[in-house]
Amino acid sequence: MDNVITQTQTPKSLRSDLALTDLIRMLAEFARERNWQSPQPQKPSISSGITFFSLEYCFYLYVGEVGELSEIFQWRGEVPTGLSDWSADEKEHLEEKLSDVLLYLVRLADVCNVNLGEAALEKLRKNASKYPVDATKRVMVVR
């Protein structure tokens, strides 16, 4: 898997519009190659803490990355769509943090046996029902 991930010339099919199922498979293999997969659950005990492979630890890693992402925007005020006033380095840093958040979210969902794609589609269906266009459409006022 590392050879596919680290190739300088990544195949076009992996550069854009990457399927969620491909990302899940790649992350699982990445973890498996490093022996980072979650072990079987154990009964908690006084001496047992959070292990590196636990779902809880995976969740905390995800939350930590979300925190790092929020720091990027924390003191910027209003940020223009497209980040037109950001430097290339600032945009690259944002890309890395967004990727970290995505990767941890996808891995957490996979470890929890949640089909993230199906869950997201179902949530969109629920939101469409909860917020129908006619009842919730707002007109943009530009001053």
Automatic annotation (TrEMBL):
Cofactor(s), names only, from the UniProt record: Mg(2+)
GO biological process: dCTP catabolic process; DNA protection
InterPro entries membership: DCTPP (IPR025984)
The protein, known as: dCTP pyrophosphatase 1
Annotated GO CC locations: cytosol
EC number: 3.6.1.12
Enzyme class: hydrolase
